[in-house]
Specification:
CATH architecture of the largest domain: 3-Layer(aba) Sandwich
Largest sheet: 5 strands, parallel
Structural class: alpha/beta
Strand order of the largest sheet: 2-1-6-5-7
CATH topology of the largest domain: Alpha/beta knot
Bound molecules: adenine
Low-confidence stretches: none
Distance between the termini: 39 Å
Shape: elongated
CATH class of the largest domain: Alpha Beta
CATH superfamily of the largest domain: SPOUT methyltransferase, trefoil knot domain
Helix content: 25-40%
Number of strands: 9
Strand content: 15-25%
Mean pLDDT: 95
Length: about 250
Amino acid sequence: MIFHVLTLFPEMIENGMNTSITGRAIEKNLLQLDVRNIRDYTLDKHNHVDDAPYGGGAGMVMQAEPIYRAYKDLNVKPGTRLIYVTPQGRTFNQEIARELSNEEELVFLCGHYEGVDERVLELIATDYISIGDYVLTGGELPAMVMMDAISRLVPEVLHNHVSYEDESFSDNLLEYPQYTRPEVFEGKKVPEVLLSGHHANIARWRRNQSLLRTYERRPDLLKKVDLDKKDKKFFKEQGIDLSDKK
Ligand code: ADE
């Protein structure tokens, strides 16, 4: 996977992405990171990247020219998706992460100030994606959030291949609680079943915990889960009536 990033703050992207699991994946060449400073593509001698909006109003707008020139310089294959990171986009989720992880390369455009000249977006943007209904100071953190979520779906970036099948959202269920040594911590014991070595019982307990957790914390997700007979029986035993949820 090649990530191209167009930004005014390349060091922010590089520092973030070259850390931890994504950093190791870049070292191993499982991921390639190509960060371009939009300011390097200005034609005016003061390296301005923004100007006042036509029609007046507060703030500054990022100019089309340097962004377009930076994009052209990437020389990406025709059809390569360019994601404009913006609170006006559709909301990022695990499904979008999965879909984007199938691409060979992706371009992220990080905006700042009041926005970007609409004309360059019309020319180069294929996707408008937000990371949630709140406004950040720029697109760098959202781009990193998306690249992180996509990276861990790229084969071999994570060591244990089973873990992303089991984890939160893969089947619209939240992950079950996890425990490690010691067996007793501050008087709190690890659930007995996890020490039993009985794999079928452990699997059932985990499934039940996932169901319960999703019901309590994300009832909106539970509506999308295919519940089988045993799942329904479990909720019944808990005295939980799903008729208002499903
Ligand atoms: N830029 C500023 N806020 C943002 C958000 N919530 N998502 C994506 N890009 C943004």
